[in-house]
Amino acid sequence: MAPKTEKQVVRKHEKFEYEFLGVFGAAFISGFLGPILYAMAFACNDISGCPAPSLLHPKSLDLEVLKREVGWPGVRGLLTWDVMAKTLGLYLLSGILYRILPATETTGTELRNGGRLKYRFNAFSSTMFTLAICAAGTIAQGADFPLWTFLTDNYIQFLTANIVISYALATFVYVRSFSVKPGNAELRELAAGGVSGNILYDWFIGRELNPRITLPFFGEIDIKEFMELRPGMMNYILLNCAFIAKQYRQYGYVTDSIVFVVAIQTFYVLDGQFMEPAIMTTMDITTDGFGFMLSFGDLVWVPFLYTQQARYLATHPLVLGPWGLAGVGAVLAAAYAIFRLSNSQKNIFRTNPNDPRVSHLKYIETKAGTRLLISGWWGIARHINYFGDWMQAWPYSLPTGLAGYTILSATTKSAVEGATVMLDGRQVVPGEAKGWGMIFTYMYVLYFAILLMHRDRRDDEKCAKKYGEDWEKYKKIVRWRIIPYIY
């Protein structure tokens, strides 16, 4: 059979189906996610409080006062050449480790053109190698290890540098996608969902499915797979570790809350990297093109939004104690069990439905030849694994409690009751900010819920087209989408 051309793929869609509310959604996300992260970085700070005191009294808000409270550096101060160079250095290190460390090589799933791309996996060993260097540096220089101070002292500039890189990368792959030719030997092809013809939307969603580039020494690099689990995830861990070091520099000790948060988030990253080959069957790799959505998400949104809890605890240390740790640990254990056991049950059933562990499960035989489980974990909710995944987000935020604090200057004459005192004499108190800080520390839980609901909707549309009446029958039996008896 002759391979399909890109034009044939486009013609299959008589009416192009937009994602993320189409062009409007693409424009909103592209233009406002960056400012949202800036707002979070400035509004919840280590200078005046979280939120900044003036934000608690919007009617009397004075812009000049607010600028002082948030440490506004001016537009030119948002990025420096030094920080940009060092940020690119971290990306370079990631690329070098990708090339020189031992790796597992495999082929991806079959493409529309019938070919299969080769992939090189060593994200886990790359991260462990980097962390080993950081551990040695920390042993030698303590909390003043230069990488830790660089990340926290230049947090805003580091954020800006990664935003610039994400925009530049999205633009590069978009422009380069126009060199894709039908039947090319490199197996390059366009993403079916990224050829709407609208420049903004296609740039956002990703026009080329698996953009690759060949560089001296580094060889061929699959840009999408590389960015998915390497620079952003590495920065995720490094930022968290830097915040632990910052807490120590500010207080002279490290609390159980920040250790717990950083430990479970590090496990989350390492678990994903250890299982790196599993990414080959995800929608990100098989379906979505690589554009601004994934570029910004991988390099900016994940490392900077997901580390808000550690960033908060670095300035407002909270002690959970044995019972507190047991509580959040129990939530995490239950969530992880639901996530892993449900996924394992599905994978075993797909591989060998006669396996004794799943042979008793009930299912619907569809006209498409696929079996849809209607008992066991998958009889509880259509995406019970999403429920477990979302539950795992809560232990990230719960250690921050009723978040919110105000920072009193070192010149405050007497100690305030309930204050935590920094080594420089400043006092951190909940004050009237108590509870308002949850806007920042619990945003990840809200965002993740929205993300999973959107994924569920996309999957529902996909399955409705694939299974037709069988899918409607299935939904009448398994009524709940993600959360049993609620949603």
TrEMBL record:
GO terms for cellular component: endoplasmic reticulum membrane. One of its GO terms (biological process) is ergosterol biosynthetic process. The chain crosses the membrane at residues 20-41, 83-101, 121-143, 155-175, 251-270, 290-306, 318-339, 435-453. It is found in: Membrane. It is a multi-pass membrane protein. PANTHER family: DELTA(14)-STEROL REDUCTASE (PTHR21257), DELTA(14)-STEROL REDUCTASE TM7SF2 (PTHR21257:SF52). Belongs to the ERG4/ERG24 family. This is Delta(14)-sterol reductase.
